[in-house]
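Q: Sequence in, structure out?
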Amino acid sequence: MSSAIILKPALEWSGPLQRKVQGHPQFAHWLSQAVEQPVTAERIKQWLQELHAELPAETASPLNQLLRQLRARVFFCLMCRDIAGIAPLEEVMLAMSDLADLALQQAYHYTAEQLGQVHGHPIQSDTGLPQEMLILGMGKLGGRELNVSSDIDLIMLYEQDGETSGRRPISYHEFYGRLTQRMMPLLSDINAYGQVFRTDLRLRPDGDAGPLAWSMAALEKYLLNQGREWERYAWIKARPIATQAYENSDNSSVLHYFESLRTPFVYRKYFDFDALAALRHLRERIRQDWHRKALARNGAQARENIKLGDGGIREIEFVVQLNQLIRGGRQPSLQKENLLLALQRQENANLLDSSVCLQLRQAYRFLRQVEHRLQYREDEQTHMLPQNPGLRVKLAESMLMEPEEFETRLRQHREFVADTFKDAFRLAGMGEEQPAKACGTEPIPETSHGIQQEVEGLIEGLLQTHKIRSLPHASRERLERLLPLLHTQALQSPDPVSTARRLLNLVDSVAQRSAYLALMAEFPETLARVTRIVSASSWASQYLCQYPILLDGLIEWHSLMQGPNFEELAQQMRHELDACQLPDGKPDIELQMNWMRDVQHQVTFQLLAQDLEGKLSVEVLADQLSALADMLLTETLYRTWPLTLARGQNETLATPNFAVLAYGKLGGKEIGYASDLDLVFLYDDPEQENVERYIKLARRMTSWLSTLTSSGRLYEIDLRLRPDGDAGLLAVSVDAFEQYQLSKAWSWEHQAISRARLVCGPEHLRTRFESLRTRLLLMPRNSEQLRADIRDMRAKITLGHPNRSELFDLKHDRGGMVDVEFITQYLVLNYSRSYPALLGNLGNIALLGIAAQAQLIPTSLAEKVAQAYRLFRREQHALRLEGAEKARIDPKRLTQERQAVQQLWDKVIGV
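A: Exactly. Output:
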């Protein structure tokens, strides 16, 4: 596209461009060449250098002139490219933001140097290096999405207090205040060359009443004690601008300090339901304030303002930022200043439907492009659509549309945005606009006076504890609203006293976090769900007390009842962990470990809720829990491998030749809620210098999985099944593992490997392990010796798990689960050579069926034992949910099932 074609539509639309071109032929010539290439940060810097070279040496205020001339170049070049349809929205927003960053850097450097000549420069007391001021871009500057005639919102911070040591020393507080005061006119004053940016410092703490520059210590105190919900909303977009006044300064410590304050203030791990009420109020204020101002002028203005009016840009911003405030503390990938990027992350995380995200994205782009054309018209900060019909037609033409098409698209976009804005809290998973109808309105089943008194006594006992009596007044009031609802819910449950005790234990555990009292008191349907869960399971009750963050999930009951998609979960988890970074860009290991634990707890609770609703069989539940463990092991390997690289060492292997073998319950995909993991680590690498790194990797993985952090631990890890047990190396070469298994392993180790599988690692190691496993299972064996070995191992297990009670231990007693597992393992080890169908790691029930089909055991007896094993697992699971430490039942129960197992044992293994 020729420059003349690019310039023509902008000249037809913009008065300032017409005047600039007519009055400055040299600029017109420059513009005709400049518009053919995108406006980038590099080109803007180049233009500044060119302008500086052209500036006469005697210029009185060179920076005042340079920055304004530079702004004119950027503004008019973008205008021409934008209206011609060759500059995407991102180019326009980024270029204006880059211009602001560069202008701030120039103004800051110049002013700091001028002040320093008189007062001296601030110095960091701990390093002796010059101390920089931290300039925060807020609003659209923070998101790198400035419009073409925008003001810029700024907050000025500094790290340490002190006193300069120049000719006229002053406090750092005064130094940075003067610095800020002198910087602003360089940007905002209007002179013969125009203006760079209007500046606004009112978003700083205390607004116009506060100091121009704040120390980090003062900011910390303010955010902790006075920070309000609308400020959390505003600080989402706080971005440190890359500015530097001194060559040898180091700004890393103040950046760390700043992020350590901002992130927990804006993004809270535990969702605050007080914040929810405040955000609802903020939404209403956004809506009502504008309507009030519009009606005071002209009722039509509510329709004509594309930023503040119904279905305008601000409503899109609210929808996106609401999700960030609600979810960002638990999903670091959402912590983005830029709106379009934040919206994309919410779509990736399935927080908003893809169709909603697409329409919001299209509406945002359209409205921002219209906004820019309105501002190009006379270089004014306006958002008002023209009411003059002729101008509306010209506006449509500047958008490269027919008037009818323009008006239709404008109306459609704004209607969709307005509807989405009204529905924002439901879309964010925070329920309907009003809390659900109060629970406890159903008739209470008749209960004895004694039970009611006992429940009331438990409640009174809680109220008398020191923890509850010392609660802040607001929390105490909330608790007093909650307890009658809790009393009603408990009486409606099958076991009122037990349920009340569990509910009160939960209340006691969350009493210091009033947000959870608010959740149960103000969302009664959630309390009903809590009651149902704790009433059904003691273990579930304890799990909620241990991880109350899971209560948030009860709001979205529909989502909680959906099966986890582990492929999507793994992808989203990787996005979130990649986003867990320190200010210097390095991984935040502690945050990553906690985040993985939170994921495990959330998915486990999701499965637990479905389990208690009767939606999962024991077998399906075990498959899901095993898939969760597989996913977390795979990610742990990915995260810990880079941590084994010594400082200064170059990366030679992008991915390790390293695999994780799962034995036992995880190997057989039969793990429960609190199962530990039996693991063996293998590597395949001929380079001897890498061996130590693989051993370090095994140690790192074990620590990552089992370390107790503030979010708990992932799994207890048992490595005793590796060659030579506790005396062996943490990671074993695949050659050594193979040699050990072929020549030294005991029969019980081959029993164990029949249930082993490779969870994660490169494909060639998976192939090698499967080949070795098959080879081991096909080894010729003496049947009698194998029986004797299995009987000996069974006797050792009996000795290791003595049962001195009169109850039947479902797992360890004779006729129980271990006997079934040993029978199956014998059949696999003894008959796989003749019946290869037994080689698959298919689970005990399937293998018994295969053995029966091969006529190795009687079909009727195999079916009875398979059914017995299924019942044993269900009983064990039910006891675990009730919090039982050992799975033991009345010996009179399941007598026939025990007898069937013992009968098959005698037939296959012998006495």
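The two ends are 92 Å apart (CA to CA).
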